[in-house]
Amino acid sequence: MADTNGASSSKGKEIENNVEDFEKILSREAAAFQRDLEVDRILKAFKLNPYDVLDLDFDASDADIKKKYRQLSLFIHPDKTPHPRAPDAFDLLKKAESELSDKEKRLDIDSTILFARTEVLKSHSIPTSTPDSDPRIAYLKPSLKEQVRIKTKELLIDEELRRRRAFKLNLANEGLEAKRKEEEVAVKKRKAEEDARWEDNRDKRVEGWRSFQSAPRKRRRKGRKFWAETSSSNFAAVEAAAGGKISMLTHLYMASVYMYIGNTAIEGIVWYI
């Protein structure tokens, strides 16, 4: 009889242990399932609104924000969940908590949310100072909270688009400025090269002029020689030097030469009359 009772007791304990093990397995699976759900929720949250990522109302206190961040970061930590995108969700939590811990950034976000609330109330012809407990707000469908969330999303998207456009415009302006500076450098470089070539050819030019001066020249006829600066069409200079009209001069002969004044060469012509 004793053996029978002992066997029954042992079997009962075994069944009880199996039930406990089964409950533990179910609990672990349920926890893993909940972790996966939370990871998916964070990934689907509106990234520009840190309150959405942390699943908090915008009037949450600093203590509420830190507490919620600790809970969620531990709950979906990559070391505790096999979800392939758990690291991404974890990074989003850190970013959201960091933004709400920054007073200036949080003030900007809160201002946008308050403006969204004002716009929603105006759209329903409800005074903007009306408290949330007012029946007119309580009976709104969708709820005021949901409508404010949607409006906030629209405003934040518009703001982000403006920011990106301004960023692209700034990059374009910087590119134009960089191109202008490159062109200035190229112009200076070309001028320096031209100046260097001019200096390199100085001796050749001087030697050419000396050769021209010393070379014997045949004159077609005797007459006066006149210098006309800049071009062969400078008839006024020739007329002034000749003391009369070119039309009255005969047997003109001209030669294009260079006159040097210091380091500057002036092109001109010599008229032989």
UniProtKB/TrEMBL annotation:
Domain J: 49-113
Taxonomic superkingdom: Eukaryota
CDD domains: DnaJ (cd06257)
SUPFAM superfamilies linked to this entry: Chaperone J-domain (SSF46565)
Any Pfam family matching the protein: DnaJ
Protein name: J domain-containing protein
Organism the protein comes from: Hydnum rufescens UP504
Taxonomic lineage: Eukaryota, Fungi, Dikarya, Basidiomycota, Agaricomycotina
